[in-house]
Amino acid sequence: MPTRLDDLDRRLIRALQDDNRLSFAELAEKVGSSAASCMRRVNRLRSEGVIVGDVALIDPKKVGKSLTVIVNVELERERLDLLDEFKRAMRATPEVSQCWMVTGDADFVLVVLVEDVDEFDNFVKTRLYTNPNVRKFRSMIALERTKFDPRIHV
């Protein structure tokens, strides 16, 4: 069940998604509230799981990950234990930045960030070809990131 959010909660969320390094005083000025109220609200949003983490967004190209590949994976069998095993494997794979279980022709969609085609080839050989439950996969190399917005619009 979604957490009930009032207008101040929404303003806080929007402000923190734009810049989560603001002090509570700066945040209060930005959203029109007191620093103490902002601190209480932000702590509540964290404890209720609305705010799940604070991260720095990194440009993959600036750290040598210039190739983004979207991979649709179709599994051989969809038993619960095999699905869980695939999920665990993808969570433990550093090249996989996102793993989505989906409906449709594919069972999973992966976003893989690597240095180059050779590194992607190594990923395929060590993570997909070696998995006996992977029936087939299709890869799409991203040519351009037209939009990337991790914010949730509330």
From TrEMBL:
GO terms for molecular function: sequence-specific DNA binding. Keywords: DNA-binding, Plasmid, Transcription, Transcription regulation. InterPro entries: ArsR-like_HTH, AsnC-type_HTH_dom, Dimeric_a/b-barrel, Tscrpt_reg_AsnC-like, Tscrpt_reg_AsnC/Lrp_C, Tscrpt_reg_HTH_AsnC-type_CS, WH-like_DNA-bd_sf, WH_DNA-bd_sf. GO terms for biological process: regulation of DNA-templated transcription; response to amino acid. The keyword Transcription applies. It comes from the Bacteria. One of its GO terms (cellular component) is cytosol. Residues 5-66 form the HTH asnC-type domain. This is Lrp/AsnC family transcriptional regulator. It comes from Ancylobacter polymorphus. The lineage of its organism: Bacteria, Pseudomonadati, Pseudomonadota, Alphaproteobacteria, Hyphomicrobiales.
